[in-house]
Amino acid sequence: MLIDIPLAFSGDRLALGRYYPVILESLAEMQEFEAFLCEQRPELISPALLARRPSGLRTDDIVFARYSPPAPRWPWLHLCCWPTRCTMLVPHPEDEFARGAYTVDAFQSDDDVNAAELRLLAALGPHEAYYVRSVPVAAGHA
Asked: Which of 15, 39, 101, 105 is close enough to 55 for a disulfide, judged by CB 3.0 to 4.6 Å?
């Protein structure tokens, strides 16, 4: 799910300065998150309900997924699910990986996603690139 944050609350910590991606792994999580968004609150809070919940997905491969924009002027998303052998290479994986397993980036165009994916594959090197499974078409809409 991708939330377009109002301009007054936008900033550098958001994707492209204004989008907040939420990783939903199941229909139950989607329903839980929608209920969370509908709750009445006395003040604004970050929609980080699931951000630190451990992922239920386990993989031995690096998995890339692309999500096309749901409407004009929305970004493309590139989601990566990383195996534990990769997430454990950083000092604080809980701070670097959403739900302990994901990275997500937003881009203005499909060409930007392609370029970023090629840079990532080059950085991984040939021994890791063997394990990457890239979905050749968009996985859906953000």
From this structure: 101
Specify the amino acid at residue 75: P
56, HSE (Cβ side, Cα atoms, 13 Å): 7
Tell me: the pLDDT tens digits for 101-116?
999 999 999 999 989 9
55-69, 79-93, 126-140: least confidently modelled range: 126-140
Q: What mean pLDDT do residues 53-82 have?
A: 89
- Give the mean pLDDT of the chain: 85
Match 């199941």 to its residue by tokens: 26
Pairing state between β 76-81 and 62-68 = antiparallel
Token digits of residue 41? 């609150």
Query: SS3 for 123?
Result: helix
